[in-house]
Amino acid sequence: MNRSIARRLALMFAFVALFVFTLVGTGLFLVLRTQLEHHLRESLDDRTQIARIIVYHAVTPEKWRMAREKLTDMTPHDGSTVYAVSSPDPYFHYGTPVDGSVVTSWAGGYARVTPAGGGQDMLTSTATIPAYGARPAVQLQVAASYSPNVRTMRVFGFALAALSALGSLGVLLLSYSVTRLGLAPLTRLTRDASAVSPNNRSQRLNTASLPLELNDLANSFNGALERLDGAYGRLESFNADVAHELRTPVTILIGQTEVALTRNRSVDDLRHTLQSNLEEFERMRAIINDMLFLARADQGERATGLIDVSLAAEVAHTLEFLEIPLEEARVHAQLRGDAMARVNRSLFGRACTNLLMNAIQHCEPGAEISVTIVSDRDQVRVAVANPGEPIAPDVLEHLFDRFYRAEVSRTNSRENHGLGLAIVKAIAEMHSGTVSAQSAHGINIFAFSVAAVSPLEAGVPAARSNTSAAAEGTGYSSLVKGKSA
What pLDDT shows up at residue 266? Predict the structure, then answer.
């Protein structure tokens, strides 16, 4: 069951208020009890002092009779104060001393006594008065009842508990109202978020009047909407580009097949038609394999079968493999630099092949392609540079997007389906690297990076495994044949 934040906060505030009221009430209760005890003791001292003076001056039997009368007059009818005098002489005797179990005793002759016959506790003060005249030495006891203190503490305790309960209830009601007012921006935020839909992807949360605590949340949510909107847009564009790229070979296949079926054909004509259809099927397979590879990369698949290699040796192997395309384009390549890195050799070779094929396709005859390997902290950068037409900055930002071509007219689309550089980016990310593109002074540079081998890992042998299925699915031969860059 969903719980209301306002109710939860109100209950928490109420419990906090009750806890505070209880602490304060307990403190007040203890202070009041101590003060009442102090006042009772002071009152008892005053009465004891008066009784001491009366008994002390009763030095003859006549004066003792007058002293007894005065003590009787001082004794209240409710028995809250008791006077008692004890001596060896039965004549100099008055009242009955309070007798029972002593609860607590203090210095100075004070004691809290629970009477043996029951009733409220009594605070007693006992003093010895020396002999004077005809009066022998006597022991004076004055006792005061705790009943007034007990009644006061009981009433105060009940009043304190009732006020604490009422105060906690008031805090509960007020905090619930205040919390609802405080959560009003969150309610509006929820309403705005509910308005976001696939048909209204541009909808964003209004952060103008939000409090500071919700502003960061709203900005993060808007950022997520921006990313989702961009991903949704790229997905729409990707679907449209896939449909466009697959529609062309399918249309060609249908057209060639319909033409072949219009009349009887010779074996050579049919063989030529089948060969043309096979080329289109190869092109479709290359597109599908590349799309599956990119889909796995989008799901966060990391490169496996990593091995420590010299990148210069791997690039040299790739250049040797592309010797025929280089000769056909009448360009030559030059390799500079070297570094050690832990890579999947097949995926790394595929990325190098795509960059080199991209450079070959955009080079004039007689040009030189430069491949440079540079170590930069924890990354190794492989850059392929070739002379060519300047590329606009807004185009550079999208060259590694899928199915993107700088040519608006989609020239050379039969040989290039626009996934080569996107695959380079995916391979770089699978190796914890990045990609970049630059165009300046007539030189275009396309580069990708992979994670370098740290000095601590240099002596640790990397795990060797077979080439990943993704790399085997589209080997170098298909890349060269389809010129997927």
Answer: 85
Q: Tokens standing for 276? A: 């043309």
Class of domain 307-482: alpha beta
Residue 445's pLDDT is: 93
Alpha-carbon distance of 193 to 222, in angstroms, equals 10
Per-residue pLDDT at 292: 78
Which mean pLDDT values do the consecutive 10-residue runs of the chain (485 residues) have? 76 92 93 92 92 91 91 88 91 89 86 86 91 90 91 92 92 88 79 75 74 77 80 72 76 85 84 86 80 74 86 93 91 91 90 92 90 89 92 84 58 58 90 90 92 61 39 38 37
HEC per residue, the chain: CCCCHHHHHHHHHHHHHHHHHHHHHHHHHHHHHHHHHHHHHHHHHHHHHHHHHHHHCCCCHHHHHHHHHHHHHHCCCCCCEEEEEECCCCCCCECCCCCEEEEEEECCCEEEEEECCCCCCEEEEEEEECCECCECCEEEEEEEECHHHHHHHHHHHHHHHHHHHHHHHHHHHHHHHHHHHHCHHHHHHHHHHHCCECCECCCCCCCCCCCHHHHHHHHHHHHHHHHHHHHHHHHHHHHHHHHHHHHHHHHHHHHHHHHHHHCCCCHHHHHHHHHHHHHHHHHHHHHHHHHHHHHHHHCCCCCCCCEEEEHHHHHHHHHHHCHHHHHHHCCEEEEECCCEEEECHHHHHHHHHHHHHHHHHCCCCCCEEEEEEEEECCEEEEEEEEECCCCCHHHHCCCCCCCCCCCCCCCCCCCCCCCHHHHHHHHHHHCCCCEEEEEECCEEEEEEEEEECCCCCCCCCCCCCCCCHHHHHCCHHHHHHHCCC
Closest to 416 in 3D by CA, of 397, 400, 403, 428 = 403
Q: What is the pLDDT of residue 305?
A: 84
Residue 264: the pLDDT is: 84
What is the pTM for the complete model shown? 0.49
The CATH architecture to which 5-158 belongs is 2-Layer Sandwich (3.30)
Q: What is the pLDDT of residue 408?
A: 45
Instruction: Give me the pLDDT at residue 406, please.
Output: 58
Give the pLDDT score at 460.
46
Options 3.10.20.30, 1.10.287.130, 3.40.630.30, 3.30.1370.10; which CATH number does 214-298 get?
1.10.287.130
List the chain domain ranges.
5-158, 214-298, 307-482
Euclidean distance between CA atoms 66 and 58, whole angstroms: 8
Residue 407: per-residue pLDDT: 55
pLDDT at 216: 78
DSSP collapsed to 3 states, 321-346: HCHHHHHHHCCEEEEECCCEEEECHH
